[in-house]
Amino acid sequence: MDTFFLLYLGAGFVLLFGLWFYYDWRDGHIHDAQRSKVIYHCIKCSQIYTGPYQSEECDCPQCGFTNGRLRF
Ligand SMILES: [Zn+2]
């Protein structure tokens, strides 16, 4: 009876930690994806938008004007 209870408790902890690690890992990947995006600012309509990773220019989704990469 006691052994069964310990096994049950252990399985619960493993499941909890597994989920915790999974969400931590998944969130880390989401943040990486956002960080690698290139931010563009449209000089025609002032729209702020993001383009693909390491792209040098990207079309504005609002007016279609091609903007260069924003440099700080
Ligand atoms: Zn625009």
Automatic annotation (TrEMBL):
<keyword id="KW-0812">Transmembrane</keyword>
<keyword id="KW-0472">Membrane</keyword>
<keyword id="KW-1133">Transmembrane helix</keyword>
<protein>
    <recommendedName>
        <fullName>Hydrogenase nickel incorporation protein HypA</fullName>
    </recommendedName>
</protein>
<feature type="transmembrane region" description="Helical">
    <location>
        <begin position="6"/>
        <end position="25"/>
    </location>
</feature>
